[in-house]
Design brief:
The complex is a heterodimer of chains A (348) and B (445). Chain A has 348 residues and is mainly alpha-helical. Chain A has one domain (2-346). The longest helix of chain A has 32 residues, at 2-33. Chain A has helices at residues 2-33, 37-47, 51-68, 70-79, 81-100, 107-137, 166-190, 193-224, 230-234, 240-257, 261-283, 307-334, and strands at residues 286-288, 298-299. With 445 residues, chain B is mainly α. Chain B folds into two domains: 3-261 and 303-434, no CATH class; 262-299, no CATH class. In chain B, strands 1-2 form a two-stranded antiparallel ribbon. In chain B, strands 3-6 form a two-stranded antiparallel ribbon. A two-stranded antiparallel ribbon of chain B has the order 4-5. In chain B, a hairpin with a 2-residue loop joins strand 1 and strand 2 (163-166). Chain B is globular. Classes of the chains: A mainly alpha (348), B mainly alpha (445). Chains A and B meet through helix 3, helix 4, helix 5 and helix 12 of A and helix 2, helix 3, strand 2 and helix 13 of B.
Amino acid sequence: METIWFAIVAFMLAMYVVLDGFDLGAGIVHLFVAKKDDERRIVLNSIGPVWDGNEVWLLAAGGTLYLAFPKLYASSFSGFYLPLIIMLWLFMFRGLGIEFRHHSKNPLWRSFWDVMFSFSSILLSIFFGAALGNVVRGVPLDATGYFFAPLWTTFTITTHPGILDWYTIILGLVSFFVLTLHGATFLAMKTTKEVHAKSQNIVSIVWWFAVTFSAIALFATSIINPMVWNNFSNNIYGYTFPIIALASIFGIKIFNSFKKDNFAFLSSSTFIISMLATTAFGLYPTVLPSSIDPKYSLTIFNTSTSAYGYSVALTWWVFGLVLTLSYFVFLFRTMKGKVVLPNEEEGY
Amino acid sequence: MDDALLLHRIQFAFTVTFHYIFPQLTMGLALLIVAMKTIALWKSKPIYNNAAKFIAKIFALNFTLGVVTGIPLEFEFGTNWARFSTFAGGVIGQTLAMEGMFAFFLESTFLGLFIFGEKKLSPRMHYFSAVMVFIGSWLSGYFIVATNAWMQHPVGYKIIGSEVVLTSFSELLFNPWAFWQYLHTMLGATITGSFAIVSIGAYYLLMNKNLETAKIYLRVGILFGLISTILVAFPTGDYQVKQVLNKQPVTFAAMEGLFETKKGAELILIGQPDMEKLKIDNPIYVPKLLSFLSYLRWEAEIKGLNAFDKSLWPTNIPLLYYSYHIMIGLGTIFILIMFVSAIYLYRKKIYETKWLLWILMMSFPFPFISNIAGWWTAEFGRQPWLIYGLMKTADGTSLNVSAGNALFTLIGFGGMYFLLGVMFLFLFLKLLEKGPEKIIIERKK
């Protein structure tokens, strides 16, 4: 049962990264692909109907994590106190950037929110990668099951590392480039003319960075936490995930060169999902390793809730998922196609 | 009380109070938008659609603020209240996760459709989206109230080791406490929404502009306002208080300012609790009414605070007492305002009655105050417990987060929310000045 819920939480987080990833990515490239006001409105309108629903995946994944592994939620959220609250503030600025911009025609007002939107998207993308880096690297969990991580210490990896060290920064950069790529493929799919051409261009350049840093991260992970490969040697079917990841990252490049924007975006989504699946597969069943002593590591078994709680929640969760997927299919189908700018007076 | 505990409490109280400004309006307006769109569709009156569309603009702005201020709360369960989450996550994780799966997804996807899809959807589908947003926001309210109800009146659990374990999902979801608390809360939100649109209508009438739409706002707002202000007091408020009387008698005594156990206890309307002498100063009261309201007998005995050990008393009795009395006092005034307005509306005189329009226009902040005062009553009333009878608030904090770190984020939230508040008002006033426009929506085939 713990394993099922581990898979559920991992699935919801992956959904979050794929869906909110493209609107984070759109935020990262916002200032570069769109220079004129109309172009910026196109970028914002392309994510406008969906970003809120996408972000709900994070909330829902958080809620599900809370339900399934309450001790993990308590320990990690309190231990990562400062970075989490700072991320909250960035989320706020980002939401406001999207929603407040159109309320005034004042060019300074609009520029301000454009920059806030892009700035917070960039920082958030790096923070997400760094967060994943912390989970792979481990934190100073002791016998109490709690820890408190400072934002940074010496940027090296010790038994008491900071949230940011050289390893987590590398993962932050991987996340930044991969989400940039993801957002740019999305915009290429949803837009026309200038924005479309610039997005395709960004895909072809940033692709090299994404590949380089992913390779560095892979190498670094093998040094930091070689344990992650154990699950793969024990069960070679696990290699499916990294193989799919490898195929799909080349898919992005190829489809983008042939101007098949939809497929480039799908490849990017597949790449993200398979990368995360690789990580989850490698970590299982540990969910937060201890850098002090492996016996203090949090696993899905020592942070779980009751068997009754799991089984009753599984029933409603499946039902909820079916409903949710149907809303998203309906929403994305209604909004499919290239973005057409509405008359500004008619909007909300 | 040590520093860290106090700071964790202040931060949660501040962020949740500021947050609740927005959802109560969201839930209230969602209902009223559906009501106006129903009339538009049913009676083929496009002007009602226009009226709904302007309210939907305010709704959308308000919704954004509700989302961005709501995310921190879910985080804070983990960041600031880790021991509480470890202890109770197995139970309240259910309702919180359900809120995400069943309410948030519904609300956010259909809001996207409602706002961006007006041209792409048929009028019926657009109406359907509005209904879904309404259902989503009211479901979200239910899961939160059910979570709170469990903290007020824990059911369906057993304690194993150092944590609570869920034993009955249906008891958790259909906690008897949640029933009245939910209806009471939703009616409170409807009052906020009704007063908001009535106030906008009154403003336009006094300014002599957008008259057609303004009249719709008065008609719809007063109808819903009258019904909800009455129902919020009776039966829902009445039953809610009786639940407190039966299950949290010490809270009841503190709310009512009853220090001594008494037969034929008086109902105190106004007065200041004096915690040194343990009495109410300058009381204005109705003799024996409290006994009658509680037990329908004038001479019924009601337990005062002196019947309970001091360690069980709510930690801040004056604040609890004031919150409760502010809620009740404002609630009574709301009934009066809506009753008089309804009479004037019925006689078709309200649109010219300037003094009444002024009162209606100025009244919009007060439902916010009474809703928040109501929640403060519930939360201060539960103290010193975090989960009534199971866990003290002092035992729920994150021990690994120091007072200095908590203060850092509290100051950050303070600055952030100040800015949010200023910008919300600025944008709201801008929308209000622009007003509803007559737009005929062209739909693509």
